[in-house]
Amino acid sequence: MHIDLVTLSLVGALQALLLAPLLLAATRAYTGVARQSLRIWGTVLVLQALGWALMGARDQISGWLSIVLANGVLMISYAETTRALRLLLGVPPRRGLLAAIGISGWLGIVWFAQVQPDYPMRVYIATVSLGGFLLLLLWPLRHALRPGGSTAQRVMLLVLLGAAAGWFFRVCELIFGDVPTPGLLAATPGNIAQMIYSAMEPVFASVGFLLMYNELAQAELRRLARTDALTGMLNRFALDEMAQRLFQQTSPHSGAVLMIDIDHFKTINDRFGHAGGDRMLAALARGISQCLRADDVLGRVGGEEFLVLLPGTGIDDALTLAERLRTAVSGIQVTLDGEPQTVTISVGVAVRQAEDKGPGALVRRADRALYAAKNAGRDQVATLDATRPTPTRDVAECSG
Ligand SMILES: Nc1nc2c(ncn2[C@@H]2O[C@H](COP(=O)(O)OP(=O)(O)OP(=O)(O)O)[C@@H](O)[C@H]2O)c(=O)[nH]1
Question: Which pTM does this prediction carry?
Answer without folding.
Answer: 0.74
